[in-house]
Specification:
Elements (H helix, E strand, L loop, with lengths): L21 H13 L18 E6 L5 H12 L3 E5 L12 H10 L4 E6 L4 H8 L5 E7 L5 H15 L7 E5 L6 H12 L4 E5 L15 E3 L2 H4 L5 E4 L15 H8 L3 H4 L7 E3 L12 H4 L6 H20 L11
Helix pairs in contact: 1-5, 1-11, 2-11, 5-6, 5-11
The structure holds N-carbamoyl-L-aspartate.
N-carbamoyl-L-aspartate binds next to helix 2 and helix 6.
Protein backbone atom coordinates (compact mmCIF):
# COMPACT_ATOMS: atom_id res chain seq x y z
CA UNK A 1 0.00 0.00 0.00
CA UNK A 2 1.29 3.47 -0.89
CA UNK A 3 2.48 5.49 2.04
CA UNK A 4 0.09 8.42 2.26
CA UNK A 5 2.13 10.33 4.83
CA UNK A 6 5.11 12.63 5.05
CA UNK A 7 7.98 11.67 7.32
CA UNK A 8 6.47 13.80 10.11
CA UNK A 9 3.31 11.63 9.93
CA UNK A 10 1.08 14.31 8.37
CA UNK A 11 -1.20 13.40 5.48
CA UNK A 12 0.38 13.98 2.07
CA UNK A 13 -1.88 11.94 -0.25
CA UNK A 14 -5.40 10.61 0.20
CA UNK A 15 -5.84 7.38 -1.75
CA UNK A 16 -7.72 5.28 0.78
CA UNK A 17 -9.20 5.78 4.24
CA UNK A 18 -7.81 2.42 5.34
CA UNK A 19 -4.82 3.71 7.29
CA UNK A 20 -6.53 6.71 8.86
CA UNK A 21 -7.12 6.58 12.58
CA UNK A 22 -10.37 7.50 14.21
CA UNK A 23 -8.88 10.74 15.51
CA UNK A 24 -7.52 11.73 12.07
CA UNK A 25 -10.95 11.11 10.55
CA UNK A 26 -12.62 13.08 13.33
CA UNK A 27 -10.20 15.97 12.78
CA UNK A 28 -10.97 16.05 9.06
CA UNK A 29 -14.71 15.96 9.78
CA UNK A 30 -14.38 18.76 12.35
CA UNK A 31 -12.47 20.86 9.86
CA UNK A 32 -15.07 20.11 7.16
CA UNK A 33 -17.88 21.06 9.54
CA UNK A 34 -16.17 24.39 9.99
CA UNK A 35 -16.62 25.01 6.23
CA UNK A 36 -20.34 24.09 6.16
CA UNK A 37 -22.76 27.00 5.73
CA UNK A 38 -26.56 26.95 5.61
CA UNK A 39 -28.01 27.18 2.11
CA UNK A 40 -28.52 30.81 1.20
CA UNK A 41 -25.57 31.99 3.31
CA UNK A 42 -22.42 33.07 1.44
CA UNK A 43 -20.04 30.19 0.72
CA UNK A 44 -17.01 30.14 3.02
CA UNK A 45 -13.84 31.42 1.42
CA UNK A 46 -10.30 32.02 2.57
CA UNK A 47 -6.86 32.29 1.02
CA UNK A 48 -5.23 29.38 2.85
CA UNK A 49 -4.11 27.75 -0.43
CA UNK A 50 -2.96 30.90 -2.21
CA UNK A 51 -0.18 30.00 -4.66
CA UNK A 52 -1.24 26.33 -4.89
CA UNK A 53 -2.15 24.87 -8.30
CA UNK A 54 -4.52 21.91 -8.45
CA UNK A 55 -5.12 19.71 -11.51
CA UNK A 56 -8.33 17.68 -11.81
CA UNK A 57 -7.65 14.62 -13.99
CA UNK A 58 -10.81 12.58 -14.47
CA UNK A 59 -10.83 9.71 -16.94
CA UNK A 60 -14.30 8.58 -15.83
CA UNK A 61 -17.46 10.69 -15.91
CA UNK A 62 -18.19 12.82 -12.88
CA UNK A 63 -20.34 15.82 -12.10
CA UNK A 64 -20.58 16.29 -8.34
CA UNK A 65 -17.10 15.12 -7.41
CA UNK A 66 -15.30 17.15 -10.07
CA UNK A 67 -17.31 20.32 -9.50
CA UNK A 68 -17.00 20.08 -5.73
CA UNK A 69 -13.22 19.51 -5.86
CA UNK A 70 -12.99 22.52 -8.17
CA UNK A 71 -15.11 24.73 -5.89
CA UNK A 72 -13.24 23.50 -2.83
CA UNK A 73 -9.88 24.49 -4.32
CA UNK A 74 -11.12 27.88 -5.50
CA UNK A 75 -12.78 28.69 -2.20
CA UNK A 76 -9.41 28.15 -0.50
CA UNK A 77 -7.71 30.52 -2.93
CA UNK A 78 -5.96 27.87 -5.07
CA UNK A 79 -5.81 27.85 -8.85
CA UNK A 80 -7.73 24.86 -10.27
CA UNK A 81 -7.40 23.48 -13.78
CA UNK A 82 -9.63 20.73 -15.21
CA UNK A 83 -7.86 18.47 -17.67
CA UNK A 84 -9.77 16.41 -20.19
CA UNK A 85 -7.34 13.51 -19.99
CA UNK A 86 -9.26 11.12 -22.19
CA UNK A 87 -9.42 13.64 -25.01
CA UNK A 88 -5.90 14.97 -25.03
CA UNK A 89 -2.57 13.37 -24.29
CA UNK A 90 -3.76 10.02 -22.98
CA UNK A 91 -5.66 9.36 -26.17
CA UNK A 92 -2.51 10.18 -28.09
CA UNK A 93 -0.77 7.38 -26.25
CA UNK A 94 0.97 9.49 -23.67
CA UNK A 95 0.75 7.72 -20.34
CA UNK A 96 -0.81 9.20 -17.25
CA UNK A 97 2.66 9.56 -15.75
CA UNK A 98 3.98 11.52 -18.73
CA UNK A 99 1.02 13.86 -18.39
CA UNK A 100 1.67 14.23 -14.68
CA UNK A 101 5.37 15.01 -15.16
CA UNK A 102 4.49 17.64 -17.79
CA UNK A 103 2.10 19.26 -15.34
CA UNK A 104 4.66 19.11 -12.54
CA UNK A 105 6.96 21.16 -14.74
CA UNK A 106 4.12 23.71 -14.93
CA UNK A 107 4.16 23.97 -11.12
CA UNK A 108 1.12 21.87 -10.32
CA UNK A 109 1.13 20.96 -6.62
CA UNK A 110 -1.91 18.70 -6.24
CA UNK A 111 -3.46 16.15 -8.59
CA UNK A 112 -7.04 14.98 -8.08
CA UNK A 113 -7.48 11.76 -10.04
CA UNK A 114 -10.45 9.58 -10.94
CA UNK A 115 -9.71 6.46 -12.93
CA UNK A 116 -11.42 3.17 -13.68
CA UNK A 117 -8.23 1.11 -13.36
CA UNK A 118 -7.11 -0.16 -9.95
CA UNK A 119 -3.70 1.14 -8.96
CA UNK A 120 -3.37 4.17 -11.24
CA UNK A 121 -3.84 6.70 -8.42
CA UNK A 122 -1.28 4.93 -6.21
CA UNK A 123 1.18 4.64 -9.11
CA UNK A 124 0.96 8.38 -9.69
CA UNK A 125 1.38 9.05 -5.97
CA UNK A 126 4.49 6.87 -5.87
CA UNK A 127 6.06 8.74 -8.79
CA UNK A 128 5.40 12.43 -8.18
CA UNK A 129 7.95 14.93 -6.87
CA UNK A 130 8.21 15.08 -3.07
CA UNK A 131 6.27 18.35 -2.76
CA UNK A 132 3.28 17.07 -4.79
CA UNK A 133 0.10 15.55 -3.30
CA UNK A 134 -2.30 13.13 -4.99
CA UNK A 135 -5.96 12.76 -4.03
CA UNK A 136 -8.25 9.99 -5.22
CA UNK A 137 -11.60 11.12 -6.59
CA UNK A 138 -12.65 7.50 -7.11
CA UNK A 139 -10.50 4.49 -7.98
CA UNK A 140 -12.15 1.66 -9.91
CA UNK A 141 -14.53 -0.24 -7.63
CA UNK A 142 -12.03 0.06 -4.79
CA UNK A 143 -12.24 3.38 -3.04
CA UNK A 144 -13.67 6.87 -2.99
CA UNK A 145 -12.23 8.37 0.18
CA UNK A 146 -13.75 11.86 0.04
CA UNK A 147 -17.18 10.30 -0.56
CA UNK A 148 -16.66 8.16 2.56
CA UNK A 149 -15.80 11.27 4.56
CA UNK A 150 -18.78 13.25 3.29
CA UNK A 151 -21.06 10.33 4.07
CA UNK A 152 -19.68 10.17 7.63
CA UNK A 153 -20.08 13.93 8.01
CA UNK A 154 -23.71 13.69 6.89
CA UNK A 155 -24.45 10.88 9.36
CA UNK A 156 -22.73 12.82 12.14
CA UNK A 157 -24.75 15.97 11.42
CA UNK A 158 -28.01 14.01 11.54
CA UNK A 159 -27.28 11.48 14.28
CA UNK A 160 -24.62 13.04 16.50
CA UNK A 161 -21.01 12.20 17.27
CA UNK A 162 -21.58 8.66 18.56
CA UNK A 163 -21.61 5.90 15.99
CA UNK A 164 -21.63 2.98 18.42
CA UNK A 165 -25.39 3.15 18.90
CA UNK A 166 -26.17 3.38 15.18
CA UNK A 167 -27.35 0.72 12.76
CA UNK A 168 -26.35 1.56 9.20
CA UNK A 169 -27.76 -0.43 6.27
CA UNK A 170 -26.00 -0.25 2.90
CA UNK A 171 -28.28 -1.54 0.15
CA UNK A 172 -27.70 -2.53 -3.45
CA UNK A 173 -24.73 -3.14 -5.69
CA UNK A 174 -22.08 -3.48 -3.00
CA UNK A 175 -19.91 -5.71 -5.15
CA UNK A 176 -19.04 -3.00 -7.66
CA UNK A 177 -19.21 0.01 -5.36
CA UNK A 178 -16.21 2.08 -4.30
CA UNK A 179 -18.65 4.22 -2.31
CA UNK A 180 -19.58 1.17 -0.20
CA UNK A 181 -15.93 0.23 0.39
CA UNK A 182 -14.99 3.70 1.60
CA UNK A 183 -18.19 3.90 3.67
CA UNK A 184 -17.24 0.60 5.29
CA UNK A 185 -13.77 1.93 6.14
CA UNK A 186 -14.99 5.17 7.64
CA UNK A 187 -17.97 3.77 9.54
CA UNK A 188 -15.95 0.95 11.07
CA UNK A 189 -13.14 3.37 11.99
CA UNK A 190 -15.73 5.51 13.78
CA UNK A 191 -16.99 2.44 15.68
CA UNK A 192 -20.44 1.93 14.12
CA UNK A 193 -22.72 -0.25 16.25
CA UNK A 194 -24.07 -2.44 13.44
CA UNK A 195 -23.40 -2.46 9.73
CA UNK A 196 -25.76 -4.40 7.47
CA UNK A 197 -24.95 -5.19 3.86
CA UNK A 198 -28.08 -5.89 1.84
CA UNK A 199 -27.72 -7.14 -1.72
CA UNK A 200 -28.85 -9.87 -4.08
CA UNK A 201 -26.44 -12.78 -4.27
CA UNK A 202 -24.80 -11.60 -7.52
CA UNK A 203 -24.10 -8.12 -6.14
CA UNK A 204 -22.85 -9.14 -2.70
CA UNK A 205 -19.07 -8.68 -2.26
CA UNK A 206 -16.75 -11.28 -0.78
CA UNK A 207 -17.13 -11.52 2.99
CA UNK A 208 -13.39 -10.91 3.42
CA UNK A 209 -13.75 -7.42 1.98
CA UNK A 210 -16.33 -6.36 4.57
CA UNK A 211 -15.46 -8.58 7.54
CA UNK A 212 -17.47 -6.62 10.12
CA UNK A 213 -20.61 -6.34 8.03
CA UNK A 214 -23.71 -8.52 8.46
CA UNK A 215 -24.69 -9.87 5.05
CA UNK A 216 -28.40 -10.06 4.28
CA UNK A 217 -30.32 -10.81 1.13
CA UNK A 218 -33.68 -9.47 2.32
CA UNK A 219 -34.31 -5.74 2.56
CA UNK A 220 -37.34 -6.50 4.74
CA UNK A 221 -35.01 -8.03 7.32
CA UNK A 222 -32.08 -5.68 6.76
CA UNK A 223 -33.93 -2.37 6.97
CA UNK A 224 -35.75 -3.16 10.20
CA UNK A 225 -34.98 -0.50 12.82
CA UNK A 226 -32.07 0.93 10.84
CA UNK A 227 -30.97 4.48 11.67
CA UNK A 228 -29.28 5.13 8.34
CA UNK A 229 -30.09 3.67 4.91
CA UNK A 230 -27.46 4.14 2.24
CA UNK A 231 -28.69 3.21 -1.22
CA UNK A 232 -26.21 2.43 -4.01
CA UNK A 233 -26.41 2.81 -7.77
CA UNK A 234 -26.39 -0.29 -9.95
CA UNK A 235 -22.91 0.02 -11.49
CA UNK A 236 -23.90 -1.33 -14.89
CA UNK A 237 -20.62 -0.18 -16.42
CA UNK A 238 -18.82 -2.74 -14.25
CA UNK A 239 -21.13 -5.66 -15.14
CA UNK A 240 -21.27 -8.01 -18.11
CA UNK A 241 -24.44 -7.34 -20.14
CA UNK A 242 -25.91 -10.71 -19.12
CA UNK A 243 -25.52 -9.89 -15.43
CA UNK A 244 -27.35 -6.56 -15.46
CA UNK A 245 -30.56 -7.05 -13.51
CA UNK A 246 -33.89 -6.07 -15.02
CA UNK A 247 -34.79 -2.64 -13.59
CA UNK A 248 -38.41 -3.36 -12.66
CA UNK A 249 -37.54 -6.70 -11.10
CA UNK A 250 -34.66 -5.17 -9.14
CA UNK A 251 -36.88 -2.36 -7.85
CA UNK A 252 -39.51 -4.88 -6.74
CA UNK A 253 -36.91 -6.87 -4.78
CA UNK A 254 -34.45 -4.24 -3.54
CA UNK A 255 -35.73 -0.74 -4.38
CA UNK A 256 -36.36 1.64 -1.51
CA UNK A 257 -40.02 2.64 -1.56
CA UNK A 258 -42.19 4.09 1.22
CA UNK A 259 -43.37 0.72 2.64
CA UNK A 260 -39.76 -0.48 2.98
CA UNK A 261 -38.66 2.85 4.43
CA UNK A 262 -41.30 2.44 7.16
CA UNK A 263 -39.48 -0.68 8.41
CA UNK A 264 -36.55 1.49 9.52
CA UNK A 265 -36.67 3.77 12.56
CA UNK A 266 -39.14 6.65 12.12
CA UNK A 267 -36.26 9.14 12.13
CA UNK A 268 -34.03 7.10 9.80
CA UNK A 269 -32.16 9.07 7.14
CA UNK A 270 -31.86 8.04 3.50
CA UNK A 271 -28.61 8.55 1.59
CA UNK A 272 -27.51 8.00 -2.02
CA UNK A 273 -24.16 9.06 -3.55
CA UNK A 274 -25.83 9.86 -6.91
CA UNK A 275 -26.28 9.64 -9.81
CA UNK A 276 -29.61 8.02 -8.86
CA UNK A 277 -31.66 5.64 -10.98
CA UNK A 278 -35.11 6.63 -9.81
CA UNK A 279 -37.56 3.75 -10.00
CA UNK A 280 -34.70 1.21 -9.99
CA UNK A 281 -32.83 1.73 -6.69
CA UNK A 282 -35.06 4.30 -5.11
CA UNK A 283 -38.57 5.67 -5.47
CA UNK A 284 -38.90 9.38 -6.17
CA UNK A 285 -41.21 9.74 -3.14
CA UNK A 286 -38.31 8.57 -0.94
CA UNK A 287 -35.49 10.36 -2.79
CA UNK A 288 -37.32 13.69 -2.52
CA UNK A 289 -39.07 12.94 0.77
CA UNK A 290 -38.50 14.39 4.23
CA UNK A 291 -36.09 11.65 5.35
CA UNK A 292 -33.78 12.10 2.37
CA UNK A 293 -30.43 13.79 3.07
CA UNK A 294 -29.15 13.31 -0.48
CA UNK A 295 -28.73 17.05 -1.14
CA UNK A 296 -27.07 17.52 2.23
CA UNK A 297 -24.50 14.92 1.09
CA UNK A 298 -23.76 17.02 -1.99
CA UNK A 299 -23.35 20.17 0.09
CA UNK A 300 -21.02 18.35 2.48
CA UNK A 301 -18.91 17.22 -0.48
CA UNK A 302 -17.47 20.70 -0.96
CA UNK A 303 -16.76 21.14 2.76
CA UNK A 304 -15.02 17.75 3.03
CA UNK A 305 -12.90 18.41 -0.06
CA UNK A 306 -11.91 21.80 1.35
CA UNK A 307 -10.82 20.08 4.57
CA UNK A 308 -8.79 17.45 2.69
CA UNK A 309 -7.14 19.96 0.34
CA UNK A 310 -6.32 22.17 3.28
CA UNK A 311 -4.77 19.23 5.16
CA UNK A 312 -2.53 18.05 2.32
CA UNK A 313 -1.68 21.32 0.56
CA UNK A 314 -1.39 23.96 3.25
CA UNK A 315 2.31 23.18 3.76
CA UNK A 316 2.73 24.22 0.07
CA UNK A 317 0.75 27.46 0.23
CA UNK A 318 2.36 30.87 -0.18
CA UNK A 319 1.30 32.02 3.27
CA UNK A 320 0.35 35.57 4.24
CA UNK A 321 3.80 37.03 3.56
CA UNK A 322 3.54 36.95 -0.23
CA UNK A 323 4.10 34.69 -3.20
CA UNK A 324 6.55 31.81 -3.12
C1 LIG B 1 -20.20 7.73 -7.22
C2 LIG B 1 -18.97 7.28 -7.96
O1 LIG B 1 -18.65 7.76 -9.04
O2 LIG B 1 -18.31 6.46 -7.40
N1 LIG B 1 -20.65 8.98 -7.55
C3 LIG B 1 -20.11 9.99 -6.84
O3 LIG B 1 -18.91 10.20 -6.82
N2 LIG B 1 -20.96 10.73 -6.09
C4 LIG B 1 -21.25 6.74 -7.17
C5 LIG B 1 -21.78 6.15 -8.43
O4 LIG B 1 -21.30 6.43 -9.52
O5 LIG B 1 -22.70 5.36 -8.30
Amino acid sequence: MTNQRRTDGSLRHLITLESLSRSEITQLLDQAQHFVRPLGAPAPTNRALRGVTIGNLFTEPSTRTRVSFELAGRRLGAEVINLEVQLSSRAKGESMLDTIHTLEALHFDVFVIRDSEPGVVATVAANVAPHVSVLSAGEAHLSHPTQGLLDALTVRQCKGERFDNLCIAIVGDLRHSRVARSAYEVFTALGVGELRLIAPHGLMPEAAEFPLGRRLSSPEEGLRDADVIMMLRLQKERMAAADIPDGADYFARFGLDLPRLRLAKPDAIVMHPQPMNRGIEIDTAVADGPQSVIRQQVRNGVAVRMAVLDAVARPRAAGPAGPR
